[in-house]
Specification:
The complex is a heterodimer of chains A (160) and B (293). With 160 residues, chain A is an alpha+beta fold. Chain A has helices spanning 25-32, 88-95, 105-118, 124-130, 142-152; strands at 4-10, 13-19, 51-54, 57-60, 73-75. In chain A, strands 2-1-5-3-4 form a 5-stranded mixed β-sheet, with helices on one face. In chain B, strand 4 (62-65) and strand 5 (69-73) form a beta hairpin. The chains are: A alpha+beta (160), B alpha+beta (293).
């Protein structure tokens, strides 16, 4: 099947590449652009491990054709740190031990980032709603919620 | 594994309708694709042509006018509906329905038109929209037609959409005074699809406290969302009491035509229809009786 031109900005970097129309966004991110931070979990849209930001909102990259993301801006977990410095959410996850096996972590970080971008001071309920789709089988979620709450409470603001 | 297809992206409704006309019979329309891509991955759906309408801007809107009611474009996302202030003010049941529909990620990309056209009897919008007496606007390259959503679904994953037709808009009439619409689904995992769901809309008479109109809609209780019309009739013109509520629940349960599957037996589903119908009729009744704020 003929490949089509995909123009996509990922983590502020513009790419033009040719992909088969049946390629999923997660496949292009991982296999073509070699951004393997985005995880492919259930592959059926149930686990949200593959969550990325698309034009600022969270989507499941396994449930979107790459061609549907033509002309959009995507942020993956690799794009959260700026100038080699981890983002507040990332630092808080580290401090709170908000991961074990790490497979859900990329998706969790992206969902948490989207939440803080939209509502800088979310309640615990809003935090739970924001990560509701992101399935974690090891942490029991408590450490993840604590990590996001700490950022929401401003503990990682203006930190050098 | 998804099988190969020819992909075309439409930017306008006209482009989309022309593409549908051109590819007659051998296409599938994709919008958010949150349900379709799962079926394609399983090989259950393998179209030769995939026509993408997701980026048609003229299909993404929420318009409310006090005299005309609410109009939602087919490519509007669930998140847009969930966050719309006019929807929240005039059709609050839609906001609570959306908040409990799948994950944030799915709501951010999935669309209302895609959800309806998918024709899943366990979908949330179907029963709620039918309770609100919604109409859908459909077009092909030559004409437009509007039909009540109640007549839109035919069977499991089947709708009245013919080859060449595109779902354009969902329309909701103005909600009559002294009306309340409520919805609840029963599930094991929060925000999962309902094992059974029930939407109820009740309008009270102006004077006295009897029911003027009632709509009871059952989700995942048949091959399509269905109205429990006999149960509705028991309520219309009456005042609600516990005895009547029992009868309404039992009648709705009889009107359901559920199947047994991995989630529940037929018997269990009938029990859920009865329980949820009673709960929702009571809730709608209590809300509709309250004086308008």
């Amino acid at each position: 099947m003929e490949k089509q031109l995909l123009r996509i900005t990922v983590n502020n970097e513009y790419h033009e590449l040719y992909v088969k129309p049946k390629r999923l966004l997660v496949e292009v991110l991982r296999d073509e652009l070699e951004l393997t931070g985005t995880k492919r979990g259930c592959n059926t849209g149930a686990c949200c491990a593959c969550t990325v930001l698309l034009n600022g909102v969270t989507v499941k990259s396994c449930s979107i054709l790459a061609m549907q993301a033509d002309g959009t801006e995507v942020t993956t977990v690799e794009g959260l740190a700026e100038g080699g410095k981890l983002s507040p959410i990332q630092r808080s996850f580290l401090d709170h031990g908000a991961y074990q096996c790490g497979f859900c972590t990329s998706g969790m970080l992206i969902s948490a980032t989207a939440l803080i971008n939209e509502k800088p001071s979310p309640t615990k309920k809003q935090i739970k709603e924001a990560i509701h789709g992101n399935i974690c089988r090891c942490t029991g979620y408590n450490s993840i919620i604590r990590a996001i709450k700490a950022v929401a409470e401003g503990k990682y603001k203006e930190e050098e | 594994m998804i099988r190969d297809f020819v992909y075309s992206k439409a930017k306008t409704v006209k482009e989309a309708l022309d593409l549908l006309e051109e590819h007659k019979e051998n296409y599938k329309i994709i919008c958010g694709g949150q349900s379709l891509l799962i079926l394609m991955r399983q090989g259950l759906v393998a179209p030769a042509n995939l026509i993408d309408i997701k980026s048609i801007e003229e299909l993404s809107y929420i318009n409310f006018k006090p005299k005309d009611g609410l109009k939602i474009g087919a490519a509007t996302t669930h998140s847009d509906i969930e966050k719309s202030s006019s929807v929240k003010k005039h059709y609050p049941v839609l906001v609570s329905m959306e908040k409990n529909l799948a994950s944030v990620q799915t709501r951010n990309w999935g669309t209302i038109g895609g959800n309806l056209a998918h024709g899943d009897p366990a979908g949330d919008p179907g029963p709620v929209f039918i309770a609100l007496n919604a109409t859908v606007k459909i077009a092909n390259s030559e004409r437009e037609r509007s039909i009540p959503l109640e007549e839109f679904f035919i069977d499991y994953f089947e709708t009245v959409l013919e080859d060449g037709e595109l779902l354009l808009e969902v329309q909701f009439p103005v909600v009559p005074p002294r009306t309340a619409t409520v919805y609840e689904k029963f599930n094991i995992i929060k925000n999962d699809q309902g094992i059974v769901s029930v939407a109820v809309s009740i309008t009270m008479e102006k004077k006295g406290s009897s029911c003027k109109d009632a709509r009871i809609v059952l989700g995942a209780a048949a091959s399509i969302p269905i109205r429990a019309k006999k149960a509705e009739k028991l309520l219309i013109g009456q005042k609600l009491n516990n005895g009547l509520l029992e009868k309404i629940g039992k009648r709705a349960s009889k009107e359901a035509d559920p199947v047994a599957d991995i989630h529940a037996s037929e018997e269990y589903r009938r029990h859920l229809v009865e329980a949820l119908t009673k709960r929702m009729v009571r809730k709608a009744w209590d809300q509709a009786r309250k004086p308008a704020r």
